[in-house]
Amino acid sequence: MAQIEVNQLCKTFRVPEREGGFRASLRSLWRRTYRDVRAVDHVSFTVEEGEIVGFLGPNGAGKTTTLKMLSGLLHPTSGEARVLGSVPWRREADYLRRMSMLMGQRSQLVWDLPAMDSFLVQAAVYGIPKDVYQKTLNELIELLDIGGVLKKQVRTLSLGERMKCEICISLLHRPAVLFLDEPTIGVDITMQARIREFIANYNRRHGATIILTSHYMADVTALCKRIIVIDHGRLLFDGALSELSARLAPFKVITIDLDHEVDGYDFAAMGHLLTRADRKVVIRVPKGQAAAITTRLLSDLPVLDLNIQDPPIEDVIARAFGERRGEGEMGARAAEAAGQLEEIGFPNPEGLGHPEALSHPDTVSHPDDGFSAGMDDRGSQP
Amino acid sequence: MMRVLRAFAAYHRAGVQTMFQYRAEIVLWAIWGLVNPAVLYAMWSSAAESNPDHTAAGFSRGEFAAYYFVLMIVGHLAAAWDAYEMGYLIRTGQLSSLLLRPLLPIWKAIADNLSYKVATLLFVVPMWFVFAWVVRPEFKAAWWQLGLGAVALVFGAILNFMLGYLVSLVAFWATKLDAMGEVYFGLGMFLGGRFAPLEALPRPVYWIAACLPFRWMFAFPSELLMGRTATVAEAVAGLAIQAAWILGVIAAFKVCWAVALKHYTAVSG
Amino acid sequence: MIRAIKLILLFARVSVQNIAAYRFEMIMRSIMSVLHLGAELVGVWTIFKNTQSLQGWGVPHMLVLVGVYRIIAGGIRMSIVPNMRRVFDDIRDGTLDFVLLKPVNSQFLVSIREFIVWRIADVILGAAVAVVGCVMLLGRVPPGPAAVFVVMLAAGFAIVYAVWLILATLCFWFVRIQNIEMIFWNVFEAGRFPIVIYRPWVQWVLTFIVPLAFITTFPAGVLFGDSTMVPRATPLLAVLVAVVLLVISNRFWRFGLRHYSGASG
Predict the structure, then answer these.
(1) Using the 8-state DSSP alphabet, how is residue A114 labeled?
(2) What is the DSSP letter of C78?
(3) Contact C55 B50 (CB under 8 A)
(4) A112/C103 Cβ within 8 A
(5) What sign for the dihedral angle of Cα B172, B177, B183, B185?
(6) Which residue range forms the structural domain that includes residue A178?
(7) Residues A47, A67 contacting (CB under 8 angstroms)
(8) Which of C32, C42, C38, C143 is nearest to C77 (CA)?
């Protein structure tokens, strides 16, 4: 039985436009111009019980907006969806009790108290019976390895420890469906691996259905057999990971180790030259020609070692989106506007004076550009 | 000096632009400056009416109206809020970024202060006229009183700003002392002649007010502008005292700023 | 219902633990409370040095009014202000989503999450001053009017809560206005004095449009049991106004939520 059914879901936002400069800000005093942004554009898919699905896409693609609709936080502009048989945006208490959403960029733990106290509040709010709560808590403490940090104030924890506590609090009520919005953001590599391990474990143990969005390819490749690619609100791809690279980038990458330096060989004629250093050559060739080109190289050059692989998934996505992004200014501006929508509000301009002490410390986080950053710098995997 | 002025102008322009973005908020801040004098006028005119000679503390209803009308203007144009700001800037780390620039943070504070006043003019000036139209103040200010009064207003604004900024330096040692701003503000209310004209204050409070700088920020300019200061000599003497206070506070500030900065860079930076 | 009470107590307990971590601030704020009260009393002293009465309100009456203002202000800062400020923050930072994800009524949840227990000092101080004022005129605190006084305070408090909820709901549309609460404080300022000092049309506005009179003046007047000061029907009217405003604010909150989540109409 399909746990999550989405049909032609759409969400359009009206975003105010603002130009720079003094004149424009004066004008904005009495006239505001708006633009319609299609954050989610006719998205449809179904997810079966126990699946872990990865949502992939650049910043502002519509991933978080889709999740927000599935968790009931947003009403769609049009379209339908059902999760666990309920319409999410009706926000029935029964539905809310069986699902959970973790937002990596925001915290629901009380800052100044030990995490344990936040857990107690959560248990009360969800009406979890004491014995069930204790059992679940013990299991989560063990799986997440957070025994030592529960009594410390949340503000004193490291980002990794805090993230683990965040995960714990979102699972206390044993949800059947889990929406994870960038669960490993900002966390170091070891911790990311541990969190991934935990999620996989949890899914195996409890059969929870999970939708995961992430900038980090490693999250997606490690956990999700099925990927949904969204860009500019549109669903571009829905299927297995391996199929993705085959579809979007029918290439192979050939890596050669040479016995000795060879000058004047025209690698560029063979395919796209990626690296040429000392005695190592890496070129990318169309899949169909891989065999033929390999033979040529083997006969032409003193090859010590040869390796043929699929291109790394980052390249695949980068090139696919790079081409889309190349669709000029429209794409960039729409994405930028959509990026603004992921946050509600703007950070407090530096040092804005005011006569009453009503200032709140600025806690708005900025949209992390980890995805594209990771793309440009092929050498360093986030 | 040119560099400072240019930077200052740039801060000011950006400040006004920012203010326009926050148009609803600055209106809300400005409203207090309208409500408070209006409420106090209503109260004092009631007090005067209840007395057999229809005056209180030597003010008639019309004179109260004039006093609070002028006070509204003075209070708005001499407003300063840095006593509240410093703790916030330090806690959020914004002070550090300001200190990185080759310009004292105080210049930005001055620029922001002026931006606020410029940006709110469009809104408050009509409100002042509405207030005057409703309460019918009795003026008897001569031209020289208005002229010197304008100077007194400027001096009062500078004094309020500088003293407030000086007081805010306490935040370098105790960032959680947000109350400092409230206390400073409260003192200004009573000892500055905002809650009541100074003549109305009980004697002990009056004498305290006479020795402190607050009366020179609000009460003195207001009295002058409404025509209550009798002689030119008095007015000029008052201006001189204002100037003396300003210079004294600036001198104290220079010393305290150096000390505060040393402490800051030693402790957090 | 029981669960609701349990939740309230739980949040209160958590808040108490929270505040204990800020002992210094507690002391500072308590000192500030006393200073505030001191300032208000100096204010009363100043007024009555220059007049015998404010349209029939003498020193004892003003003391009671100061007391009522302090009680209400203390109560507001104890529970309403921290919760509503958190709603402003939540809407701005996007963390309101976490409230909406919970299987609990959202208005209820956002109203009980915070509780600054030591603000009760303000309430106690205010009550003390009110008692002093009452005793000054009547020699004792008459039990009948005192009971009505408590009812009026409760109604006034409910009215304030409803107003704050409306202001918080406005944040859904005016997301970036951090000081929307200034609207309340500015009007509340006017409640420091009995509404009789204002012109008739202002009095009318402050009774029927912005029910400020029900928040400070009327409760204060009721304590003296003097029906010339405050008409006999006022307590009933106060409760009625409170109920109406609570309903309106609840509807408005629900409307705001629908807007926030993009539901049409």
Answers:
(1) B
(2) I
(3) yes
(4) no
(5) positive
(6) 2-245
(7) no
(8) C32
Instruction: Write the pLDDT tens digit of every residue in A238-290.
Output: 988 878 767 666 788 888 898 888 887 888 888 888 888 878 888 888 888 88
Give yes or no: residues A208 and A268 share one domain: no
Does C124 contact chain B (CB < 8 Å)? no
Tokens of A155: 């503000």
Distance from the Cα of A357 to chain B's closest Cα (Å) equals 5
pLDDT at position A220 is 81
pLDDT single digits (tens) A178-225 = 999 988 888 888 888 889 999 999 999 999 999 999 877 778 888 888
Question: C265 in a domain, yes or no?
Answer: no
Are A355 and B32 inside 8 Å of each other by CB? yes
Name the interface residues of B facing A (CB cutoff 8 Å): 13, 16-18, 20-23, 25, 29, 32, 79, 81-82, 84-85, 87-89, 91-92, 94, 97-98, 105, 108-109, 112-113, 116, 178, 181-182
A26 shares contact with chain B (CB less than 8 Å):
yes
What total number of domains does chain C contain? 1
pLDDT at A326 over 50: no
Burial B193-212 (b: 16+ CB within 10 A, else e): bbbbbbebbeeebeeebeee
Using alpha carbons, list the distances in angstroms from residue A281 to A254, A266, A314, B60.
8, 12, 20, 96
Q: With contact defined as beta carbons under 8 Å apart, do C63 and C130 qualify? A: yes
Q: State the residue range of the domain holding B221.
A: 2-267
Residue B87 in this model has a pLDDT that exceeds 90: no
Of A55-69, A89-103, A325-339, B35-49, give the lowest mean pLDDT range.
A325-339
Sign of CA dihedral B65, B71, B72, B73: positive
- Confidence band (pLDDT; 50, 70, 90) for C21? low
Identify whether residues A35 and A104 lie together within a single domain: yes
Per the CB < 8 Å rule, is A356 touching B92? Answer: no
Neighbours of chain B (3+ CB pairs under 8 A): A, C
Q: What is the ipTM of this complex?
A: 0.88
In contact, B4 and B106? CB cutoff 8 Å: no
Q: A354 and chain C: CB distance < 8 Å anywhere?
A: yes
Q: Is the Cβ–Cβ distance between A223 and A183 less than 8 Å?
A: no
> What span, in angstroms and rounded, lies between the C-alpha atoms of A307 and C81?
66
- CA A116, A121, A122 angle in degrees (round to 5)? 95
C253 Cβ contact list (under 8 Å, min separation 6): C106, C107, C165, C168, C169
Of A277, A309, A341, the position where a domain reaches its end is A309
